[in-house]
Amino acid sequence: MRRKKVDLDIEVLVQNNRRGILNYNDDRGALIELQEYGDEEYVPMRALKSLSTGRDKTLLRDLSLIIVDVVDEEVTLEDVLAELRLTEYYDRAKEDMGIEDDLSAEAIDEIIENESLDDIKRDMK
Questions:
Q1: Distance, CA of 114 to CA of 25 (rounded, Å)
Q2: What is the mean pLDDT of residues 27-48?
Q3: Among candidates 76, 75, 53, 51, which has minimal Cα distance to 64?
């Protein structure tokens, strides 16, 4: 199956999964500024594409910044993750944590609240 090309102007909802401020500025106009854990912001796909290929791509790969939704009737969250080459990271995190739905800070919090410390350490590896 051929992957759908994602328009760089569509809006994507991202969420801060850090326990503090998350800032990203690529010096070309892409800016993501989330003050607290769980804060959400709509950003253009163009900013995420820049982030995914730049020096700060670990923000996406280590799930510090979670992609939670896409504002487009023809493009799915899975399309966005595939375009950014993040599918394997999300699939692995969901599998390791036993999350069946989409990944979000709230879903991760729920796992943390219900698991033992040993289980959390195992999941984080």
A1: 35
A2: 86
A3: 51
